[in-house]
């Protein structure tokens, strides 16, 4: 199928609508579930570990399979895999919405992540494969812009649902969205694939080993936080590290690996991904604990807590493109050094948010400083990742960076309560949670400072003529923007 759909045509508008709607399902879930955690814990009578798994089960399968999801679209058809992902995500969301206990909810969240790994890269790949080259850049820009708006709406919508119909509707809402998305995709979106990927084997073993390594390490960290560092926990940690080593060995030996080791021969690429791990570990920890702090300690409703952090997203939407332009002029080293320090300052300001916290005097200044730091660093981070590899590997580099950020958030959600001394029932006690939250913010600020120091020591100006981001507007606070492979492949 040639890339000949024009953006102004009815079909072009349907393609854009479908891809935005599908990707927004996954994006909304990644932002609204945190708002619902205290209510989920109370309704299902569960402990902090189950709430950690409610977040991490989704991130685990999504981070582990997102690169494989893009390859499946190349092989079997991007529309086909996208539609399968939307249906899968909707069915898993239904299971989340009717889950009778925490165990079923966690299992359904893991299934949701599988669906997200299929539809998230597929939505951008469809944009790039469907539109005429003259319209592709604008289509990608609209896709990323509308996705940012979805990220901004997410916490507000999630808070309204939790306070109104109930937390289950955070998940059930995906079902009617899928019922709209799938028929439109089948009727109006052209099928596309990559003939160069029609043969060869998928790196299923590599994907499985990576997911197992993350799962076992996550399990060990969460269970250690429960106060039971016994033989099972130690064994899980050892097996997780062994699976990680096996993953590296397998990727080095496979002819067509999911994660080509040679891409890390670029010192700049390796360094920027290490910065990414620091930055998004801190973000993951904060956005997991921050809305809980506002509800449990400060007494905010779910709606008020969800909207409290909205200014950070709005700053990203309004100024991410300008931040990218500034980075082009002065180079990425200064933004990637200053940005994490501003974010660290924002998290330190969150130490003032306790019982009966004033939004204007206590919460808003912290969120504005944090958002300013995110604006400063996110666009330059993506541009530097793309510029550090050959143009033909820009999409792969972006996918690796996106997966690295998700993995960092996954580990942070598992490890931070343990490091901060949060007990299993900490979220039920405002005093205990407040004390542990303060320690957690200090840890996150220190990790951000380490990322800043690493950027200052390693990041250099990219060479001329390197790949540049196509997604200029970005509103997600959870992960860096996902860029497509040049030539229409993701």
Automatic annotation (TrEMBL):
Domain Major facilitator superfamily (MFS) profile positions: 15-463
This protein's record includes keyword Transport: yes
InterPro entries named in the record: EmrB-like, MFS, MFS_dom, MFS_trans_sf
Chain ranges passing through the membrane: 14-37, 49-69, 81-100, 106-127, 139-161, 167-190, 202-222, 228-250, 271-296, 302-321, 333-351, 363-387, 399-420, 440-459
Region: Disordered, residue numbers: 467-490
Subcellular location: Cell membrane
NCBIfam families on file: efflux_EmrB
Name of the protein: MFS transporter
Organism: Streptomyces flavalbus
């Amino acid at each position: 199928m040639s890339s000949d759909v024009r953006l102004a045509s009815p079909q072009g508008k349907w393609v854009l609508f479908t891809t935005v709607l599908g990707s927004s399902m996954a994006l909304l879930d990644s932002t609204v579930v945190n708002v619902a955690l205290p209510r989920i814990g109370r309704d299902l009578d569960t402990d902090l570990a189950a709430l950690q798994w409610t977040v991490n089960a989704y991130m685990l399968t999504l981070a582990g399979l997102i690169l494989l999801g893009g390859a499946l679209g190349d092989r079997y058809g991007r529309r086909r895999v996208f539609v399968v992902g939307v249906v899968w995500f909707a069915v898993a969301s239904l299971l989340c919405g009717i889950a009778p206990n925490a165990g079923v909810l966690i299992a359904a969240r893991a299934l949701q992540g599988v669906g997200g790994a299929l539809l998230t890269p597929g939505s951008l790949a469809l944009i790039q494969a469907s539109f005429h080259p003259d319209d592709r850049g604008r289509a990608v820009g609209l896709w990323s812009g509308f996705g940012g708006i979805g990220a901004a709406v997410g916490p507000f919508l999630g808070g309204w649902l939790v306070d109104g119909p109930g937390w289950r509707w955070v998940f059930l809402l995906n079902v009617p969205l899928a019922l709209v998305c799938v028929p439109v995709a089948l009727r109006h979106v052209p099928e596309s694939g990559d003939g160069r990927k029609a043969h060869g084997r998928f790196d299923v073993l590599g994907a499985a080993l990576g997911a197992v390594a993350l799962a076992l390490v996550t399990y060990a960290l969460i269970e250690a936080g429960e106060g039971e560092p016994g033989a099972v926990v130690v064994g899980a940690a050892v097996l997780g590290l062994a699976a990680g080593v096996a993953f590296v060995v397998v990727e080095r030996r496979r002819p067509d690996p999911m994660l080509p080791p040679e891409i890390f021969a670029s010192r700049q690429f390796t360094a920027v991904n290490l910065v990414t791990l620091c930055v998004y570990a801190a973000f993951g920890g904060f956005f997991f604990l921050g809305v809980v702090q506002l509800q449990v300690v400060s007494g905010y409703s779910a709606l008020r807590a969800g909207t409290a952090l909205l200014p950070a997203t709005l700053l990203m939407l309004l100024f991410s493109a300008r931040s990218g332009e500034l980075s082009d002029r002065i180079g990425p080293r200064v933004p990637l050094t200053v940005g994490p320090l501003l974010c660290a300052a924002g998290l330190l300001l969150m130490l003032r948010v306790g019982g009966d916290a004033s939004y204007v005097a206590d919460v808003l200044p912290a969120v504005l400083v944090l958002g300013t730091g995110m604006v400063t660093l996110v666009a330059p981070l993506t541009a530097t990742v793309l510029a550090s590899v050959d143009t033909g590997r820009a999409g792969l580099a972006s996918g690796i960076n996106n997966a690295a950020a998700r993995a960092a958030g996954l580990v942070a959600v598992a490890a931070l309560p343990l490091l901060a001394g949060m007990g299993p029932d900490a979220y039920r006690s405002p005093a205990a949670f407040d004390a542990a939250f303060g320690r957690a913010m200090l840890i996150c600020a220190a990790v951000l400072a380490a990322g800043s120091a690493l950027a200052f020591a390693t990041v250099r100006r990219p060479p001329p003529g390197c790949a540049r981001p196509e997604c200029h507007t970005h509103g997600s606070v959870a992960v860096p923007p996902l860029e497509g492979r040049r030539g229409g492949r993701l």
